Amino acid sequence: MAEKVSKEEVMHIAKLACLNLSEDELSRYTKDMQEMLEFADTINNLDTENVNETLGSISKSNAFRKDEVVDFPNKDLLLKNAPSQEDGMFHIPKVIN
Amino acid sequence: MELYELTVHELADKLEAGEVTATEITKSYFDRIKEKDPEVRAYVTLLEEDALKKAKEVDEKRINGEKVSKYAGIPIGIKDNLCITGTKTTCSSKMLENFIAPYNATVIEKLNDEDAVYLGKLNMDEFAMGSSTENSALFKTHNPWDLERVPGGSSGGSAAAVAADMAPWALGSDTGGSIRQPSSLCGVVGLKPTYGLVSRYGLVAFASSLDQIGPITKDITDAAILLNIISGHDEHDSTSLDIEKKDYTKALVNDVKGMRIGIPKEYIADGINEEVKNAVLEAAEKYKELGATVEECSLDVGKYATAVYYIIADAEASSNLGRFDGIRYGYRTENFSNLRDIYRNSRSEGFGPEVKRRILLGTYVLSSGYYDAYYKKAQKVRTLITNAYNELFEKYDVLLTPTSPTTAFKIGEKVDNPLEMYLADICTVPVNIAGLPGMNIPYKLDSKGLPIGVQLVAKQFDEEKLLRIGYTLEQNTNFRDNKPTFRKG
Fold first, then answer.
1. I need a labelling partner for A44 at 20 to 30 A (CA). Which of A67, B141, B437, B467 fits?
2. Interface test with A, best of B361, B376, B387, B462 (most A CBs within 10 A)
3. What are the sequence ranges of the domains in chain B?
4. What value does the CA radius of gyration of chain B take, rounded to a whole number of Å?
5. Distances from the Cα of B121 to the Cαs of B35, B75, B166, B392, B407, in angstroms?
6. Which chain B positions have a beta carbon within 8 Å of A13's beta carbon?
7. What DSSP letter does each residue of B72-116 carry, written as one string?
8. Of the candidates A33, A43, A73, which has its C-beta nearest B360's C-beta?
9. How far lies B292's CA from each of B257, B397, B401, in Å?
10. Is residue B349 pLDDT above 90, yes or no?
11. What would the pLDDT profile of B44-58 be if each residue is shown by its tens digit?
12. Residue in B with minimal Cα distance to A47
């Protein structure tokens, strides 16, 4: 079967998706993606020349609401989920030297 | 008859008649959970203390003559991707293992208005990605009809809990069959509402254009009742439709005379287990006896639905799961020296193998050079699938198909072959692609004693037809006489 995706491409995709892959994972996912893309390719048998793309699952136009600031009632609980926080702010390593 | 064996509408009648208290019902469920959950393993988190406190409050309200909902004090189990304030919402992922929800999902707010009692949070495939609940990063759930088999997925915990009488009803979510397929494998009713009928606010997003929350129940009456409770417009979900609120219990009419039922021939063909196929044809005969017209039809373009589904769902997932960065909430790696390390290492250590596989495929189909060939093409084929359904609904009130191509398979049987696992959803994914309502109705047991379900599909926002036609089948058959055996193999 024709190669749809190379290990180098999968590494590139992993980088875009912010994932590290071990050598084992890379082999596994390259093989899986090869199979899945071949399967996905069956849709190219269909002629879609004059077909519009689906943009939403139901025919509904824009949903408008007033642009108002609403205070979130549970800020403490929100911040508690941060792996590291200080004085009501998220704590991250230094990004500028 | 033990309390835990009753349906919700039976429990509600007993509560109303003063024959039983919410506390007694709740205790009955926790006793049952302690007896059965060590072997089924449906629950990720139990909320016993809060549940008993809530049940007591409701009992006091009733004693004091306060006006309460008919369903006040009735317990429910919740899939662990729905947020309840102050309660862990893990999505069965290491990424969210310690996440405490800071707000309620809209469906939870609506259940709170009815004074519902939460039994606990239910296991699932990690981030709802899977068809067997084997992708849970926490533990596997077992099918109550045969503990060596999977309960289906991704709402496997919800379906197994209801089947095992460890919850009178439960909420699940369905992106490509995740309510209906486990309901089929566990022998319970599972209803995936029309996209937009139920608010998705507070549901951890997987594929936003396909996800819907819905009921998993012991019978169709309970499904209508729960749909009444959870449906409705919500300003927090711009895709929830502002339509008139209906009373779905009015659709529970035992009569299908004159109804037109179509059976797409592609779903009773190769690739569908013989016993499952025969069950669908038997159900069709039953409908004919009851006065409906049943006809074979065709949904040829449906064969592309699984490919379309995995392109669109994974594309949306890769985007939705971009938010997990180890900064604001969720798992953070201990191994980092800079910000980029936090992102990459937290994601690599926090996500399980199936989630990574889907993020990779989703990122690929959205990436430069492949977007048109895959994503855009898939969205066009999606239109063709929707159009094909629309044409069928000009002729038929509902479509009848299997829910799952097979009955419950063995734990471990399909884990090494992702594509084979994906095909477990061939009968359910086209329904999500077109945003339609679909329902599993447990129909009979196969020769191994495992449940076979049939699926009804209706046009958008025609849940009433689904319920009426499903209810008629249920009332004229006797699946509920069967009980799970908890056997091993």
1. B437
2. B361
3. 3-256+404-414+439-481
4. 21
5. 17, 12, 12, 39, 25
6. 360, 363-364, 367
7. TT-EEEEETTB--TTSB--TTSGGGTT-B-SS--HHHHHHHHTT-
8. A33
9. 5, 10, 16
10. yes
11. 999 999 999 999 999
12. B381
- For residue B295, the tally of other CB atoms under 10 A from its CB is 12
In the numeric block, which tokens belong to residue B90?
Answer: 């893990």
Name the CATH code of domain B3-256+404-414+439-481 (choices 3.40.50.11690, 2.60.120.330, 3.30.470.20, 3.90.1300.10): 3.90.1300.10
Q: Determine the residue among A13, A47, A86 to mutate to test chain B binding: the one whose Cβ has the most chain B Cβ atoms within 10 Å.
A: A13
CA distance linking residue B370 with residue B127, whole number of Å = 25
Record: contact B100-A80, CB cut-off 8 A = yes
- Residue numbers in A near B238 (CB within 8 A): 63, 65
Contact yes or no for B37/B166 (Cβ under 8 A): yes
The token pair that represents B238 in the structure block: 């711009």
3-class SS at B304?
Answer: helix
Is the pLDDT at B304 greater than 70? The verdict is: yes
Asked if B155 and B60 count as a contact pair (C-beta separation under 8 A), the reply is no
User: What residue of A is the nearest CA neighbor of B300?
Assistant: A46
- Helix then strand count (H, E) for chain A reads 3, 2
In the residue annotation, B178 being an active-site residue is answered as yes
Domain assignment of residue A14, yes or no = yes
In a domain, A39, yes or no: yes
How far is C-alpha B298 from the geometric centre of its chain's CA atoms?
26
DSSP state of A41: G
| Enclosing domain of residue A35 | 7-45
Interchain contact B53–A (C-beta under 8 A)? no
**Confidence band for A1, pLDDT divided at 50, 70 and 90:** low
What pLDDT does residue A97 have? 67
Instruction: Tell me whether residue A37 is in a domain.
Output: yes
Chain B residues whose beta carbon lies within 8 Å of the beta carbon of residue A37:
361, 364, 374
Band (A92; pLDDT cuts 50, 70, 90): confident
Interface contact B338-A29, CB threshold 8 A: no
- CATH number, residue A29: 1.10.20
